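Encode chain A's predicted structure.
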Amino acid sequence: MKTYGLIGKNISYSFSRSYFSDKFSQLKIDAEYVNFDLQNIDQLYSVLKETPNLGGLNVTIPYKEQIIPFLTNLDPIAKEIGAVNTIKLDNKGALTGYNTDYYGFQESLRPHLKDHHKKALILGTGGASKAIAYTLQKLNIAHTSVSRSAIDGEITYSDLNKEVLADHLLIINCTPLGTFPDVDAYPPIPVEFLTPNHLLYDLIYNPKITKLMKLTMNANGQVINGEKMLELQAEKAWEIWNK
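Encoded structure for chain A:
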C-alpha cells in the first residue's frame, strides 16, 4: 500500500487528507493519506526515513519555502515562484518539488474575471502569495503586495485608503486570518471602501464564507473562497505523482 501525505504545522483541519482519502476510496486505490504535522522542517528527515512506500507529498503553511533546500530537484515553475506545494519521490529517493497552487488559482479565478479587474492587491507575503503573484503576472494583472511591515515593492495595511481600493478591484487574501476557529478575524483593510466592482478571492476554505467575504458581500462585491483552488491543485498534484 502506498502512502501519500501533507507536510505542514497544525494541520488537523486539512482539506487534503479528506479529499485524497475519498478519492482513494472511490477509485478503489490501495493507498492512505497521512497528515505529517511537523513542529519544524528538520523533522522531514524522519518522515522520509520512517514512511514505507511513500508515493508523494503535499506541502502547506509554513513550509512551502522552507522545504526547498531539502529537495533534490526543482521544477522550473516552482523555481520561478519560489515556493513548493507538491513533491514527487522517485524509486531512488530523489525529491522533486512542484507548485500546483498557481494552476489551481489560475483556473478557479478565470471564470470570475471582468474587464475592470486590471489591478490586484495581494494580502500577505507567505509561500501561497508567491504563486498568486506568479499567476497574476501571467494573466497580465498588475499586483501590489500588502504586508504588516514595509518591504521593498510592498505597501502596508496603513497605506490602504479609498483611492488605493478604488484602483485595485481584485483583492486576494493569502493570510490565514479568518480561518476556523478564529472566524471573526480578517486582514485590516478599510472595508468601508469596498464596492460592487470588487472581487475578493479568499484562499481560506474553512469556513466557506469568511468574515472578509461577508463584509465584501455587504458591499455587493463578488467573492470566491479557496475550495475550488484546492481541488484543482490537488488533482494536478495527483497527475504529477502518477506521470
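The chain is about 30% helix and 25% strand.
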